[in-house]
Amino acid sequence: MIDISQATLDVIEAIRRKRPVKFSYMERERIINPTGFYGDFYGFEGTYAEEETAHRKFSFDKVDDWQGVVLPYTVFVEIQMYDYPTDDEVRDYLQPIADGMDPLVYSIKPRTEV
Predict the structure, then answer these.
(1) What is the C-alpha to C-alpha distance for residues 33 and 62, in angstroms, rounded to an integer?
(2) Residue 84: exposed, middle, or buried by beta-carbon count in 10 A (0-12, 13-18, 19+)?
(3) pLDDT tens-digit profile of 71-91?
(4) Whole-number Cα distances in Å, 9 to 6, 13, 92, 101
(5) pTM of the shown model
């Protein structure tokens, strides 16, 4: 069972800061942009962070694990090229990295406050 008081405070903070919350619900990991509460704080509602059109309600009593408000990150991969690259050239460069044959060098930058 999760700490419903902390989860409620996290949802309020996420709504205020326009950030997603991360949790496990019915054995599936979810990342949701909360929009409000329902049923006298029985649960909360919101949209999936990746897909803003699917609106769902989540009951606190069915949440398996609560991780709280998450900070979105942007991952940057730099490619050195000496001419303006085409999509195919970039894809050809990244394919061995995606296949795990070449090492990947990247930087991570947290998104700033909204």
Answers:
(1) 18
(2) exposed
(3) 878 888 787 888 888 889 888
(4) 5, 6, 46, 44
(5) 0.69
- Cβ atoms of residues 49 and 33 within 8 Å: yes
C-alpha torsion sign, points 63, 49, 110, 7: negative
- 4-69 adopts what CATH topology? SH3 type barrels. (2.30.30)
In which region does residue 74 sit, left (phi positive, over 0), alpha (psi from -120 to 50) or beta (all else)?
beta
Cβ proximity of 41 and 28 under 8 Å: no
Q: Where are the domains of the chain?
A: 4-69, 73-110
Weakly modelled stretches of the chain, pLDDT under 70: 112-114
Give dist(CA 60, CA 40) in Å, integer: 12
Structure tokens at 93: 């460069």
